[in-house]
């Protein structure tokens, strides 16, 4: 399994993810809005699914992809941890500076 951050590092995957944030879509719908083939979209969706950023459900002959809220929450938690550590380090650095 790859990380969500790694998966979103690719511009096409990020574009697909952003489209799915707006509304669930099929491979055909996504490919119609992007300059890539349906096969390429399917491969990108597989990476996003492996990273737990999207889920899919059957809808007749098609599969509908949507953002996985749990995967999105995990990315948000990563980002929150990053900023908490960064801001704590900044606060410590500022507090250690000699006062004039």
From TrEMBL:
<keyword id="KW-0805">Transcription regulation</keyword>
<feature type="domain" description="HTH arsR-type">
    <location>
        <begin position="1"/>
        <end position="87"/>
    </location>
</feature>
<dbReference type="GO" id="GO:0003677">
    <property type="term" value="F:DNA binding"/>
</dbReference>
<dbReference type="Pfam" id="PF01022">
    <property type="entry name" value="HTH_5"/>
</dbReference>
<dbReference type="InterPro" id="IPR051081">
    <property type="entry name" value="HTH_MetalResp_TranReg"/>
</dbReference>
<dbReference type="GO" id="GO:0003700">
    <property type="term" value="F:DNA-binding transcription factor activity"/>
</dbReference>
<dbReference type="InterPro" id="IPR011991">
    <property type="entry name" value="ArsR-like_HTH"/>
</dbReference>
<keyword id="KW-0238">DNA-binding</keyword>
<dbReference type="InterPro" id="IPR036390">
    <property type="entry name" value="WH_DNA-bd_sf"/>
</dbReference>
<protein>
    <submittedName>
        <fullName>Regulatory protein, arsR family</fullName>
    </submittedName>
</protein>
<dbReference type="InterPro" id="IPR036388">
    <property type="entry name" value="WH-like_DNA-bd_sf"/>
</dbReference>
<keyword id="KW-0804">Transcription</keyword>
<dbReference type="InterPro" id="IPR001845">
    <property type="entry name" value="HTH_ArsR_DNA-bd_dom"/>
</dbReference>
């Amino acid at each position: 399994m790859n990380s969500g951050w790694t998966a979103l590092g690719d511009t096409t995957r990020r574009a697909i993810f952003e489209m799915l944030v707006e509304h669930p879509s099929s491979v055909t719908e996504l490919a119609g809005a992007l300059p890539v083939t349906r096969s390429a979209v399917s491969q990108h969706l597989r990476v996003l699914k492996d990273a737990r950023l999207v889920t899919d459900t059957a809808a007749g002959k098609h599969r509908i992809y949507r953002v996985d809220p749990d995967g999105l929450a995990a990315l948000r938690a990563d980002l929150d941890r990053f900023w908490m550590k960064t801001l704590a380090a900044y606060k410590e650095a500022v507090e250690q500076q000699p006062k004039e």
